Amino acid sequence: MPESSWGDLTRSRWGRAAGAGAEILWWWAAAVAIWALTLSSVPPQELIASAICGLPCAVAARAGRKAVGSRWRPRPRWATWLLPFLVAVPADAGRLLAVTIRRLVTREEPGGMQEYPMPAGEPPDVAAARHALAILTVSATPGTFVADSDPEEDKIVVHTLASGRPQLEQVVRK
């Protein structure tokens, strides 16, 4: 094998390995962060457990993404969803408490389902990222969850128990 081909082959192997390592590191950090967010306090034992358990989760997440054969291309501007999300979580918790009390008193059935169109015409890898991150963002609040998503029709169906501002199902569409 000529040296230039060997060098190209070695660089491509190292490049793929570095890419795989970076992806696993990202998934691992996400798993550890999600674990830490579920804790009321963060003792060292929990951090050690999350670090240990996060690694096989990260490897499985990469394997799952590879098995599906798709790529995500999130847009940096979607980081603007974070502030409304941080406001929505405690606001939804308060509204959900009020809905629960009202339900106990009036026996009124709370909530409902609503369909929201997602932006159409995005490249497939961008649309896939938007759908996945929109589902995660909307479903992470106490008062709502995404009951159905149809990427081919560019829509999500959201079940809402307690609604109010900020409405993340509207935010993720921008």
Fold and architecture overview:
With 174 residues, the protein is mostly helical. The chain has helices spanning 3-37, 44-68, 82-106, 124-139, 168-171, and strands spanning 112-117, 144-150, 155-160. It has a three-stranded antiparallel beta sheet with strand order 1-3-2, covered by helices on one side. The longest helix is centred in the first third of the chain and has 35 residues, at 3-37. It is globular, with a radius of gyration of 21 Å.
Task: Give me the strand/helix succession.
Answer: HHHEHEEH
Mean pLDDT: 80
**Beta-sheet strand percentage?**
5-15%
List low-pLDDT spans.
none
| Assembly of the depicted chains | single chain
Q: What is the total domain count?
A: 2
Provide key terms for this protein.
globular; 5 helices; three-stranded antiparallel β-sheet; mainly alpha; single chain; 174 residues
SSE layout and pairing:
Blueprint: H1 3-37, H2 44-68, H3 82-106, E1 112-117, H4 124-139, E2 144-150, E3 155-160, H5 168-171
Antiparallel strand pairs: 1-3, 2-3
Q: In brief, what are we looking at here?
A:
The protein is mainly alpha-helical. The chain has helices at 3-37, 44-68, 82-106, 124-139, 168-171; strands at residues 112-117, 144-150, 155-160. It is globular and about 65 Å long.
